[in-house]
Amino acid sequence: MKIIPTIMSGGAGARLWPVSREAHPKPFIKLADGKSLLQHAFLRAALLPGVEQILTITNRELFFKSEDEYSEVNASGVGCTYLLEPMGRDTAAATAIAALYVQQIYGDDAIILLFPADHMISDLDAFRAAGVQAIELASRGRLVTFGIDPEYPETGYGYIEADGQNVLRFVEKPDLAKAKEYIAAGRFYWNSGMFCFSAGTMIGLMQQHCPDILDQCRRSLVEAHQSNVASGTQLTLDRESFALVPKNSIDYAILEKAENVAMIGCNIGWTDIGSWNALSDLIEPDGSGNRINGDTVLVGTENCFIQSSGDRLVGTVGVQDLVIVDSADAVLVAHKDRAQDVKQLFTQLKANGHEAHSLHRTVHRPWGTYTTLEEGPRFKIKRIEVKPGASLSLQMHHHRSEHWVVVSGTAKVVNGEQELILNTNESTYIPCGHKHRLENPGIMRLVMIEVQSGDYLGEDDIVRFDDVYGRQ
């Protein structure tokens, strides 16, 4: 019997701005231990018995970043398969795609353990034990969910009412009075959003309860483009077909309608990282109740969460009950009681067209990263890092010229009709309208400084002629 852990990774993580952005969503947030939520999810998945392959469902724009994250922690060489969505269609579509793919490759009896990438679980032994229980139930045709033993009357989670292992009903996020009733009743559990089922069981349930989602997902999978990548298999779903998939959650589409739902009640140190308050709970408080991540100096400060990013020091004097998050290009200051409302700030940034809702100052690309160091009228300065063996597209700009200076490593450059090899401290000038390409032929990262000048310096001033990553 094949066990296929499946990680759902994506979303905007609006409540965790400014660290989370649309192009750098919540699963990629680094915790105090240096690992991201996505990396923790991968390591949990690899702990399950007999796992040889991990499936990841994510947006196609996040593929290269996900691949880099996995490569840093995949010491055991577990196989990776990526199912890439052209746009989000909620968890019912992700579940259907996973079930159809696993059925196609491994058959009806293969077991899928499906969970989000943006949760944190601290008791890995308990998680593995709960997973083993769920796999056994799923092998007997049950659709299994994981109920978390509630620690307090939380209003931000949905609940499951259960009689032993049998689910009686799913309930929405309650108000405080109702949450207290649930805790007192002793038969309600937090809904973790993690599930376990056989591929055949899920496909049968979807055929019965949401055939429109299943059928359209099947079309997008049949028309998908498959390619082999360094870490495994990449399957890009067909955009036109997938755009027609109805949006729905797996809870509404299946769980609230199915009659064979079982629940594993567990205490696994589970946290849904849905706000800065939840993330701060992962850090031990100091004697004044402050939870700190980064370089800070505090005077007369109590019950605050403070995270400093990069090289900046954060200092506070005479404040309490605040969330303070510093990033390279934005700072958040919020009262802890309003941490959920950070989403409103994110929404306003997006409505205003502010770049800070989507991108960080450091932007990840398939070939490496670029960091905007400074910009002003008619100029922009970037630090560019290119991974060993990687290359940018053959491209041209209509409105800007570029100066490239190699800081470290070796650069292979196409500049118009010329092909150059540049070493440390050497440079070249790319006139406006010249076709050019940058490549790192070495075994170390190539680091460069790029100075752009011109009338327009937007990232959309680019014409690609040849791109190994399939971008237009």
From TrEMBL:
Pfam families cross-referenced by the UniProt entry: ManC_GMP_beta-helix, MannoseP_isomer, NTP_transferase
Domain spans labelled MannoseP isomerase/GMP-like beta-helix: 294-349
GO function term, MF aspect, one: mannose-1-phosphate guanylyltransferase (GTP) activity
CDD domains: cupin_PMI_typeII_C, GDP-M1P_Guanylyltransferase
InterPro entries assigned: GMPP_N, Man1P_GuaTrfase/Man6P_Isoase, Man6P_isomerase-2_C, ManC/GMP-like_b-helix, Mannose-6P_isomerase_type2, NTP_transferase_dom, Nucleotide-diphossugar_trans, RmlC-like_jellyroll
EC numbers, comma separated: 2.7.7.13
Protein name, per record: mannose-1-phosphate guanylyltransferase
